[in-house]
Amino acid sequence: MNTAPARRGRRRQAGPRPDPTPRSPFILRKLNTFNVLGEEGLCLIEENADIILRDTGMEFHGDPEILEIFANAGCDIDGTRVRFAPGFCRQTVQATAPAQFIQHARNPANNVQMGGNATVLCPSWGPPFVHDLDRGRRYASYDDFETLVKLHHSLPWLHHSGGVVCEPVDLPANKRHLDMLYGHIRHSDRAFMGAFIGAERASHAIDMAKIVFGEDFLSENAALYCVSNTNAPLVMDAHMSGALKTYARAGQPVACTPWVLTGAMSPCTVAGTLAQILAETMACLALVQLIKPGAPCLMGTFASTMSMKSGAPTFGTPEAGLMVLAAGQLARRLNVPLHTVGTLSASKVPDAQSQQEATWGLMMAMFAGANLINHATGWLEGGLVTSFEKTMLDHDLCGKVGRFFDGIDLGVNAQAMEAIAITGPGQHFLGSEHTQHNFMDALFRPLTPDDNSYEQWKDAGEKDAATRANGLWKSQLDAYQDPGLDTDIDAALQAYISMRKAETPDRDYF
């Protein structure tokens, strides 16, 4: 069954944006992926991953059911450590994992494709701090969370509402996931992520999705998204495996994602890190398929480097680029979609460093053929901060790469042969009918750059890119159009949230 859910949120009627920008629900890449490994190199990494799984194995802490699942599948269990026969994980994944699937949004126009040549861009995830030029760096609040959801909803080159776009620390830690889920559902009609930490929170997300989409619809379709991180090297804890089990059994997508910094959580070499990433990912993907054959899942990778001088995370490095490009090749050989990360930066403010690192990360992920790119906007300070200004600067990058990967239009209009013949030698095309017809969309128009003369720039206040982005995110929020939500669904969600919150006292820890 793949019919639309019986109830969806109602879209409020509103006037057009003053400067409408065309958008697509996701990017369909027309350019080839970029391969950094040949067949010999890929086989070597895959063989080394199998050796790791056979000889070293992977530990699953605090979840006896996981060990039982693997034991029943014939794996070797030693305490909390699981060892796998060579080829077992790959064969288990390839036998039943789908190569492509749709994640549904409550507005069907915003459904996103996971897999194939599609790329979905998501905003930042997880920072406990936010930053803007007006109020500086501060702990994030739920008001900041809602503001970011509304801002992301208004941005045409983002495709997904995301998850913890910032951590609202003014709410109890053990209950804030309910408010965040409601915020995504209420203020956006794009696809969104579920709660990731533990089986209970995952079940809350599934319950809320059932209210929005209907239980029958959710039983047959993906409408949530989970990221289950490993604790590299070669460990998964009960919080992550609990969420993985819950989403897998519900048929909801799980991105199995080693989170590594080379030299600390993996070897300091690219080849060693790739073997470890592949081993961890295959073990977790196999677990998803053992729990529910055919459940949608993605190979995930968050692999970056660290400073050998300070031990701090570094981003936008050549090695990080090589790792994500190779991960794309490995995911394609597993025949599962690829989940990775985008505009990461260690910079503290939206400056030249932040955008150099962001551009490198996003381009490498795109050339890797990533199907979902998390942290595509707003990420600063190694993941501690979501920046409102960097969100706008990164959003321009998202639009640029989308346009770039659309490739070269070779249609009759784009060839412009008639226009060249009519204009002739020595003339200009500024006033030609072809230019007049195409000037609005022939060239990509980013929102944040200043391309005026020096005198015009000076008269306008000598604003740098961050200052222009500051004004832009505010104007985007002013143009936000509330997508609305069916009143019965809204009431049911709020009643569910109130019930769950009443079950336990507030806690300031997870």
Amino-to-carboxy terminus distance: 37 Å
Any idea of the CATH topology? TIM Barrel
The percent range for strand residues is 5-15%
The largest sheet is: 9 strands, mixed
Q: pLDDT below 50 for ≥5 consecutive residues: which ranges?
A: 1-20
Question: For the residues shown, what is the average pLDDT?
Answer: 94
The coarse silhouette is globular
Q: What is the oligomer described by this structure?
A: single chain
Any idea what the CATH architecture is? Alpha-Beta Barrel
Describe, in plain words, how this protein is organized in 3D.
- The longest helix is centred in the middle third of the chain and has 22 residues, at 270-291.
- With 510 residues, the chain is α/β, with parallel strands linked by helices.
- A hairpin with a 3-residue loop joins strand 8 (129-132) and strand 9.
- The chain has a single domain (1-406, 446-496), classed as Trimethylamine methyltransferase-like (TIM Barrel).
- The chain has helices at 39-56, 64-72, 88-96, 142-154, 176-187, 199-213, 215-220, 238-249, 270-291, 318-334, 352-367, 388-404, 412-415, 417-423, 433-438, 454-459, 465-478, 487-503; strands at residues 27-28, 58-60, 76-78, 81-83, 100-103, 112-115, 118-121, 129-132, 136-139, 226-230, 235-236, 254-261, 297-300, 302-306, 313-314, 338-341, 372-374, 379-380, 385-387.
- Strands 1, 7, 10, 12, 13, 14, 15, 16 and 17 form a 9-stranded mixed β-sheet that branches. A 4-stranded mixed β-sheet has the order 3-4-2-11. A 4-stranded mixed β-sheet has the order 9-8-19-18.
- Mean pLDDT is 94; it is low at 1-20.
- The chain has 18 helices and 19 strands.
- The radius of gyration is 23 Å and the shape is globular.
